[in-house]
Amino acid sequence: xxxxxxxxxxxxxxxxxxxxxxxxxxxxxxxxxxxxxxxxxxxxxxxxxxxxxxxxxxxxxxxxxxxxxxxxxxxxxxxxxxxxxxxxxxxxxxxxxxxxxxxxxxxxxxxxxxxxxxxxxxxxxxxxxxxxxxxxxxxxxxxxxxxxxxxxxxxxxxxxxxxxxxxxxxxxxxxxxxxxxxxxxxxxxxxxxxxxxxxxxxxxxxxxxxxxxxxxxxxxxxxxxxxxxxxxxxxxxxxxxxxxxxxxxxxxxxxxxxxxxxxxxxxxxxxxxxxxxxxxxxxxxxxxxxxxxxxxxxxxxxxxxxxxxxxxxxxxxxxxxxxxxxxxxxxxxxxxxxxxxxxxxxxxxxxxxxxxxxxxxxxxxxxxxxxxxxxxxxxxxxxxxxxxxxxxxxxxxxxxxxxxxxxxxxxxxxxxxxxxxxxxxxxxxxxxxxxxxxxxxxxxxxxxxxxxxxxxxxxxxxxxxxxxxxxxxxxxxxxxxxxxxxxxxxxxxxxxxxxxxxxxxxxxxxxxxxxxxxxxxxxxxxxxxxxxxxxxxxxxxxxxxxxxxxxxxxxxxxxxxxxxxxxxxxxxxxxxxxxxxxxxxxxxxxxxxxxxx
Length: 597
Description:
eight-stranded mixed β-sheet; Alkaline Phosphatase, subunit A; 3 domains; Jelly Rolls; six-stranded antiparallel β-sheet; alpha+beta; Arylsulfatase, C-terminal domain; 26% strand
């Protein structure tokens, strides 16, 4: 998407050539971050976020801050454009991005008037190499330990746009790159969008952050706390950089979550750090990611600008991530047309100049769900279900009072229905409520018992009669027998057998050594998955030729992986294979051996 903005640039640079004191704007955006998980929220004492706490103390902890959606892609599209995302067709993760590509982002608007702009971390709105087309001069698109699109290094040096190998843990890399851009452009107005992929799965916190949270707890909780501690360190680094250059009072800072934490109802502490509960918590709110209940989109929300906003506030009125773009535009002196934004400039409200609430009402639609909040009243619809809550007395959404206050429910329904006609497509729902969301509504809002948890990948692999286990090792499609120190894998059923090990963490590269016998000339295919991957990737595969022999043969290959390996699968031929030994040796730490288990 290219726009010929040269005439506008010439005009705006002439207009603002003198305006060196225009404020800076920084948006910290976290990923699947539950409401409970800032220590300043006062919900749990295991979370420690001293730097975000200081940010809140210097400004405002918004008690009722909302995302625009309970899911990653639409919430990011709404934040950056400043309009409710269903106005331009990005309602859910499944929707095409054509509408977003046609919209002006706040970064484009600010860049057009001379702001330095930078994107760091998760994008999720198209290809990383295309981010510059949406108004960002600097791009550091790292959200894992895999190569990522970037045109700047962690030290703020320019490089050609292209794939870059990680220099640091992804959270740390984003923080250092953002800090470097502040240092480089300390005399220019800037807009930085720092979108950490934390604590979203795959859970991948380095040891130095995990060690901050010793003691007994679910490992997924420890990972979430550690990843958020890395985020907090990053906030501290950026704020220290602002202070070093005397920019604190002239910089507006937002810290917002993109949606609530995914709990998957049962909060299973599954090994490996992949799909499932991310370890974060939404307490005391009801529900989770994917729901328009409070737990799905009532998020951590902090705003600070000591030069304009008095510190130490707990702001009681609802605000939304849509307010970010409108506030930034007003502060930058942009000429705003009617319909440009759905949000409002928050500065008059947070500074005390305006005593009324910023919004008369807030409204949402997400696939089969819709909601409206007006004052303390909230009407929530899921498919054909409808709930009315008074959030002043029932923030946990436990008591549906729709029958007690039918006139309130009817009025809110009319307002929500009228607003939904402005969306694309119009209406309160865009598809039927799926069985998954019906199950979530049954559990969270109807109080019905939860269904048994879905089996984890490893549990599913263990369920068939043709599958056996030895310790933590699993054979699928075959029988694993042990006789006099030798492991025999006998094929069973229609499929080739597979030897599987999951739920560990080995520092790469990992050397794989096996001593085996085979009854035929065949090939073993070794697949692996690292912490940053939800499934086995096609490129993560090695073929290991084996020969028919009555003698033991020792084979050795290396998993050429710099990240931690958490899952291996040896796809075996449909012949008798005997293992005398099998060992996975990491670059550091203890090995894993088949014969030990």
